[in-house]
Design goal:
The chain is of the alpha/beta class. A 6-stranded mixed beta sheet has the order 6-7-8-3-9-10. A 4-stranded antiparallel beta sheet has the order 2-1-4-5, covered by helices on one side. The termini are far apart. The mean pLDDT is 90.
């Protein structure tokens, strides 16, 4: 694998509060990197730097040779075609049916004819195991179905990278497991690179090729699950086993 992202000295502050304190890491092409950490440690903040939704306070984010931290909003458009994001809420448009939600990025950012858009929407719905629901409104869907439709929309333009922000929050264990396998299937079928922010350790076991443990503004550990279990870091073990941090 080769590095798709190269992140160096990434720092993010809000006023006097330092959230990210000099992160250095790579994201390899085709991998599934899961970012773990306690609530409020900056996991989602890290994610939002990777497609320019937020600008870092300092540092560089090199995406295939280009530093996206210096790009204007307009210059970021091509990057966001290639780096999609699945928000925690799903962020579906409640006034649009499922077809219109998934078609929206194609109509905004491609030259596809309507018939091709219709075919692509049907294909993406099949990928998330929800064929034939194009006319359904988001309000008529369960939480798990909304997440699947949001995933289908994030796949609309066949992105190279998908950023997942807490994709199983609020879902029961069986539905969470199905979301995990859909993430795996997207990687296998489309060759996408995935970056997943989650507290869900079962999801992590399902999808992660590597995990990164964020603590006190830095990555305390980056490696495979097996390497994490073999680590001598007691705090990492406590997190992975759901035990409280000792003073």
């Amino acid at each position: 694998m080769s590095a798709l992202f190269e992140i160096r000295g990434l720092r993010k502050s809000y006023g006097d509060q330092v959230i990210l304190d000099g992160l250095d890491f790579d994201i390899e092409r085709g991998e599934s990197l899961v970012i773990l950490g306690r609530s409020g440690t900056g996991k989602s903040v890290t994610l939002r730097q990777l497609n320019g939704l937020e600008k870092p306070t300092a540092g560089t984010i090199i995406f295939e040779g280009d530093d996206i931290t210096v790009l204007s909003e307009r210059e970021l458009y091509p990057v966001r075609h290639r780096v999609a994001m699945l928000f925690q809420s799903g962020a579906l448009f409640d006034s649009m049916n499922v077809f219109e939600n998934i078609a929206f990025p194609m109509r905004q950012h491609s030259d596809f004819e309507e018939e091709e858009i219709r075919q692509r929407v049907a294909t993406k719905l099949e990928m998330v195991e929800l064929p034939g629901i194009e006319e359904t409104l988001p309000s008529e869907l369960s939480g798990g179905m909304r997440k699947r439709v949001a995933l289908a929309r994030s796949l609309a333009l066949d992105p190279e990278v998908i950023l997942f922000d807490e994709p199983t929050t609020g879902l029961d264990p069986m539905t969470s497991d199905s979301i995990g396998h859909l993430i795996l299937n997207a990687r296998r079928q489309l060759g996408t690179t995935a970056v997943v922010v989650t507290h869900d350790l079962m999801l992590t076991r399902t999808v992660a090729t590597r995990i990164a443990f964020l603590y006190d503004g830095k990555f305390r550990f980056v490696g495979t699950w097996d390497e994490a279990e073999a680590s001598s870091d007691d705090l990492l073990h406590r997190f992975l086993n759901g035990r409280r941090e000792e003073d």
